[in-house]
Amino acid sequence: MPKKAQVKESPAVIADRQRRLKWWREARFGMFIHYGLYAQMGRGEWVMNRERIPVDEYDKLADTFAPKRGCADEWAAAAKAANMKYVVLTTKHHEGFCLWDTQQTDFNSVKRGPGRDIVAEYVAACRKAGLRVGLYYSLMDWRHADGAKAYNNEKARARLVDFTHNCVRELMTNYGKIDVLWYDVMWPLKTADRWRASELNAMARKLQPDILINNRTGLPEDFCTPEGHIKPEEGKAWESCMTFNGSWGYVPMAPEEWLSPKKVLEMLRQCANGGGNLLLNIGPEGDGAVPALAIDRMTRVGKWLRQYGEAVYGQFDPIKELEGWAGIGWWSRRGNLCYYWITAVWPGQSFSIGGLLTKVKSVKLMPTDKPLPFTQTKDRLLIQGLPKTCPDKNCDVGMLKIEFAGEPKQRLGEGTVYYKAY
Ligand code: GLC
Predict the structure, then answer these.
(1) Within a 10 A sphere around the Cβ of 307, how many other Cβ atoms?
(2) Does 239 contact ligand 1 (Cβ within 6 A)?
(3) Which of 35, 47, 80, 383 is the most buried (most CB within 10 A)?
(4) Mind listing the pLDDT tens digit for each residue in 26-49?
(5) Which atom of ligand 1 is nearest to the CA of 225?
(6) Residue 3 CA to ligand 1 centre (angstroms)
(7) How far is the CA of 86 from the centre of ligand 1 (A)?
(8) pLDDT confidence of 419, banded at 50, 70, 90?
(9) pLDDT of res. 422
């Protein structure tokens, strides 16, 4: 963030942002796609830097780059299967290779390798599938002659910044409506001023009045981007981006290194509770194929979301007076209606939730909403009539819906009695 005090935004600017954010908040779940030359090596998107591969040697990857026909349709299909509502593709990652028909450099997918405009294919595939379209653009560029020099050479900086603005202008001009502009890594210029970021983003907004812009030009813009962790940002729109298997770019990891469907759902619960989004990454293989394992797991997540979506979509209230660690389950709350996510282990036909201080009106088992018999005594809600095994055979995440007569409160403490409550 810039050191200077932010200019206070007018109510009209704030209202316009809320308008633009509406679909995005409702979407909750999107797909990040890291695809570039590095996918061919299968050692992650930082391979050029981590292995200090010289530009000339890395350059050869542009000739062998061969995304298979229709790969963008496969990405879109995978996102749909997962019930994701938007997608963000790396149009140019740190390696500097452009996946679109740019006039700014020949190091692009039209002049080299496939001879195709992958961004155009991607945008068309998303639209056909009814997905919102996001474009990622890395400011940092390991290939550009001024990519590092710009740090302490004003002429180099001017060239790099012009190049950047021109690239973004093309992306914002040549592909119809774009919903998200997702910048990354400000190195080596470090400040928004040195990238002329206000001007850059003003240009993007002029070309795309409804666009959402992330905060990685050093300006707050529309949403924050916690990376690798889920952390609500008070009063701001936020989106956690997470890898599927520890790497953004393709790495053929062992199956146990990939997120289980249950883990993805736990992330979604945390995002929903904090009012944020989850941008879950896939790193397509060298030829653009989505790893089969990711498709399988995301499809299971999508199937679950179609049955249990009310516990994920929409607005939730802070857990506040409920315990964060509530036994075998975790809470989300919408007013006096709570969702109890049974993720640890299925309890069998009965179990209880301790320490509830508010009267319970009903307990229902999702996804059928079958009412379950319960008895509530002073410190214990005993729930019965559950099936022997988890009704969800797909992700092994069961869900109870518990309606309370007033604001739900729970006190467990460490002992057998919660002293403050009595
Ligand atoms: C980091 C990494 C980059 C990745 C990004 C995703 O900035 O440098 O490889 O694309 O995170 O948020």
Answers:
(1) 16
(2) no
(3) 35
(4) 999 999 999 999 999 999 999 999
(5) 12
(6) 23
(7) 18
(8) low
(9) 45
CA atoms within 13 A on the CB side of 417: 4
Q: What is the pLDDT of residues 164-220, one digit of tens each?
A: 999 999 999 999 999 999 999 999 999 999 999 999 999 999 999 999 999 999 999
What pLDDT score was predicted for residue 324? 85
Ligand 1 centroid – CA 348 distance (Å): 43
| Nearest ligand 1 atom, CA 184 | 7
Mean per-residue pLDDT for 104-118? 98
* pLDDT band (50, 70, 90) for residue 6: low
Q: Which of 38, 140, 185, 247 has most ligand 1 atoms within 8 Å of CB, for mutation?
A: 185
185 Cβ below 6 A of ligand 1: yes
Q: Is 184 in the pocket of ligand 1 (CB under 6 A)?
A: yes
- Give me the pLDDT at residue 420, please: 60
Is the pLDDT at 139 greater than 60? The verdict is: yes
Per-residue pLDDT tens digits for 80-102 = 999 999 999 999 999 999 999 99
- The C-alpha angle with vertex 330 and arms to 327 and 331, in degrees rounded to 5, equals 125
Distance (angstroms) between ligand 1 centre and the Cα of 286 equals 19
Question: Hey, what amino acid is at 216?
Answer: R
pLDDT digits (tens, 9 = 90+) for 278-307: 999 999 999 999 999 999 999 999 999 999
In the reported structure, the alpha carbon of residue 184 is separated from the centroid of ligand 1 by a whole-number distance in angstroms of: 7
Residue 415 scores a pLDDT above 90: no
- What is the residue with the minimal CA distance to atom 8 of ligand 1? 185
Which of 49, 88, 184 to mutate for ligand 1's pocket (most ligand atoms within 8 Å of CB)?
184
Evaluate: CB of 227 within 6 angstroms of ligand 1: yes
Q: Whose CA is nearest to atom 4 of ligand 1?
A: 248
Give pTM, 2 decimals. 0.96
